Amino acid sequence: MTDITDAYFSNLIVRLEELKQTLAEPMAQAADVILDAARGDKRVYVFGTGHSHMLAEEVHYRAGGLAFTVPVLVGSAMLHEGAVISSVYERTQGLVRPMLERYGMQPGDVIIIASNSGVNAAPIEAADYAREIGAKVIAITSIAYSSAIANGRRRLADAADVVLDNGLPPGDAVLDLEGTGLRVGPVSTAVGVTVINAIFAEVASELSKSGDAPVYLSANMPGAAEINQKLVRKYRPRNPHL
User: Fold this and answer.
1) Number of H helices, E strands in the chain
2) 163 three-state secondary structure
3) In what order do the strands lie in the sheet with 110-115?
4) What is the pTM of this model?
5) Whole-Å CA distances, 227 to 38, 57, 67, 73, 180
6) Which residues form the SIS domain (predicted)?
7) Ordered alpha helix ranges (H), the chain
8) d(CA 51, CA 202)
9) Which of 37, 44, 49, 117 is within CB 3.0–4.6 Å of 77 for a Cys-Cys bond?
């Protein structure tokens, strides 16, 4: 392993160890919010623009994942239909509401919104829309990043019921390329995926105590087809991506 690859691994490991402590309380709060929704047969939506949308895909129809999660996936807000225009989209006011309306979010639902910078229009509007209809908002964001660039603007953290501060620096990348002024090694996706999977594991553990944890199996595991088909039949009416 070279010095820089070792540095990346070490940096990420240190950050995750720190987050185990600093996020212990807000992660417990997030798990409680999601548990309340699950026990009321509600849904947990996951939304992010740009690279943050990968957290929504991470939890969707995932082996070991919870079946009541619903990814908010709109091509123009992602990267595959045009990365440059998606960056414009996430900064444009007024585009998120019609996008979310097609998902049928209801009072008592939860939406997890990932935005590392925490200041773009799309994630903040998503949070406002969710709270208007009575859904709870959990934010995964960098307080340091959003505080550094807000310049008086509202931040996602200001619009959320539970804030999970990923502790990352402005700009996301954590490694300096000596003599260039450049930084490489973004970590927000790795951190975000770890945090959201840890919370869902806690939720599943609590639900399993009453024998009601709707968890998908890997398609290659014995009995997976029957279990997964049953879950899909139950949750497909409110998940357009199943």
Assistant:
1) 9, 7
2) strand
3) 69-71, 44-48, 110-115, 136-141, 162-165
4) 0.93
5) 18, 21, 11, 25, 53
6) 30-209
7) 3-22, 24-39, 54-58, 83-89, 96-101, 121-132, 143-149, 188-208, 224-235
8) 25
9) 49
Strand partners, 184: 175
**CB count in 10 Å sphere of residue 164:** 26
Give mean pLDDT, residues 198-212. Answer: 96
Other CB atoms within 10 Å distance of the CB of residue 46: 25
Which two tokens mark 140?
A: 């995964």
Q: Assess whether pLDDT exceeds 80 at residue 134.
A: yes
Nearest to 156 by CA among 195, 115, 189, 193: 115
Question: How far is 170 from 144, CA to CA, in rounded Å?
Answer: 6
| Pick from 16, 101, 95, 12: nearest CA to 49 | 95
CA-based nearest residue to 47, from 78, 1, 20: 78
- In eight-state DSSP terms, residue 217 is P
Q: Average model confidence (pLDDT) for the chain?
A: 91
Best CA proximity match to 164, nearest among 110, 216, 205, 85: 110
Question: Whose CA is closest to 118, among 94, 140, 137, 135?
Answer: 140
Q: Compute φ and ψ for 48, nearest 5 degrees.
A: -165, 150
